From TrEMBL:
Keywords: Cell outer membrane, Ion transport, Lipoprotein, Membrane, Palmitate, Polysaccharide transport, Porin, Signal, Sugar transport, Transmembrane, Transmembrane beta strand, Transport. GO terms for biological process: monoatomic ion transport. Residues 146-222 form the SLBB domain. GO terms for cellular component: cell outer membrane; pore complex. Coiled coil: none annotated. It comes from the Bacteria. The keyword RNA-binding does not apply. This is Sugar ABC transporter substrate-binding protein. It is a multi-pass membrane protein. One of its GO terms (molecular function) is polysaccharide transmembrane transporter activity. It holds the Pfam family SLBB_2. It comes from Bradyrhizobium centrolobii. Belongs to the BexD/CtrA/VexA family.
Length: 376
């Protein structure tokens, strides 16, 4: 596959889409390592652990009321033989208005409040009528504060968040679903929260603990399988689309996956990596971003494999999904192509003359007539 010449890339000779060329060196690699693609914390601002879970509409609530002695508001005198002066009220669901009903306390607001807040509200309503009352409110069944995990997991699950806040992280939620069903390096995690969506590779959660954020009530976690790939063409041993087959690979490994550079064709000093970088990263790399629109800048990184240091630098540059790797032809290759074309043309012409000289036709005076070419 013919591609742009190395000089065209290095000189940024294009009028269709502007791009920047950045020579790969240790300083550039340091900038790229610092500005890793955004994980979940960079997309979803709320990474704090969940506070105490609040009741929602439809939750089933259990209320238990204790009194200091029998004969009070809730515990009759004959209950003195029981091992405790308390009464369990029938379980009830939080209604569409967000309330529950407690005898002698009336309608109590429950939706959007913690169990401690509901307990205190009930206590304030009955403390002047009951005998030194105490109130315990628990959740019998949660229907609002749920977390869903589905997709490429062994057992899709929908589980409630404990009232006290279990502080589960994303990987904990995935574990509740039996873990991922495929290879980690080709699994992606989508987190939906409060109308926002963030997508990261599964490995991002494992190797970057800051990305493994806490689960919040209402989170939907979807896992899907899509191998990470890059494209290689030009003077490489093999052109096409290649899977990473690992959580991460570096530029040197990518060249190896493409069967290396062609000995008689490639220019080792002109290996290029095409990708888009955020404007902030491009500015840190010294790119003049004034001629670029949008949040990202197309950049072509140039690595020189003719320099031994280039191999070490390339091992520090991590490939990203959909990167494009291009190895340019050496300048002498184009000259060789022209010479071969000229040589082929001359040989073809010479062969044609020889063929004409050897053709014989039947004549009237002899069995064959020889056509003789006249000319210098």
């Amino acid at each position: 596959m013919a591609g742009p010449a190395s000089l065209d890339v290095k000189n940024e000779n294009t009028t269709v889409l502007p791009f920047a060329v950045v020579k790969l060196n240790p300083e550039v690699v340091q900038v790229l390592e610092k500005y890793e693609p955004n994980g979940l914390p960079g997309i979803l601002a709320d990474t704090r652990p969940p506070s105490s879970i609040k009741f929602g509409i439809g939750d089933i609530i259990s209320v238990t009321i204790f009194e200091a002695s029998a004969g009070g508001l809730y515990v009759p005198l004959e209950a003195g033989v029981r091992p405790g002066n308390y009464v369990n009220l029938p379980d009830q669901a939080v209604d569409n208005d967000g309330n529950i009903t407690v005898p002698y306390a009336g309608r109590i607001r429950a939706a959007g409040r913690t169990n401690v807040q509901v307990q205190e509200d009930i206590l304030q309503q009955i403390k002047k009528r009951a005998i030194d009352p105490q109130v315990v409110v628990t959740s019998s069944q949660q229907r609002s504060s749920l977390v869903s995990v589905f997709g490429e997991v062994r057992t899709p699950v929908r589980f409630p968040m404990p009232l006290a806040g279990a502080q589960d992280r994303i990987t904990d939620a995935i574990t509740r679903a039996g873990g991922i069903s495929g290879a980690g390096w080709e699994t992606w995690v989508v987190l939906e929260r409060n109308g926002k969506r963030a997508t990261v590779p599964f490995g991002n959660l494992v190797y970057f603990p800051s990305s493994n954020i806490f689960v919040q009530p209402g989170d939907r976690i979807y896992l899907y399988r899509e191998p990470m790939k890059f494209i290689a063409f030009g003077a490489t041993g093999q052109q096409g689309e290649f899977n990473f087959d690992a959580w991460r690979i570096n530029l040197t490994q990518a060249v190896a996956k493409a069967r290396g550079l062609l000995d008689l064709q490639a220019d080792p000093a002109s290996v290029f990596l095409y990708r888009r970088e955020p404007r902030e990263v491009a500015q840190r790399l010294g790119v003049d971003c004034s001629k670029f629109d949008g949040d990202s800048v197309p950049i072509v990184f140039n690595v020189n494999f003719q320099d031994p240091a280039g191999y070490f630098i390339a091992t520090k540059l991590s490939m990203r999904p959909f990167d494009v790797l291009y190895a340019a032809n050496a300048p002498q290759v184009d000259i060789t192509k022209v010479l071969n074309f000229i040589n082929t043309t001359l040989v073809t012409a010479e062969s044609g003359v020889t063929l004409v000289n050897n053709i014989r036709f039947p004549g009237p005076t002899s069995s064959t007539t020889t056509i003789t070419t006249i000319g210098p």
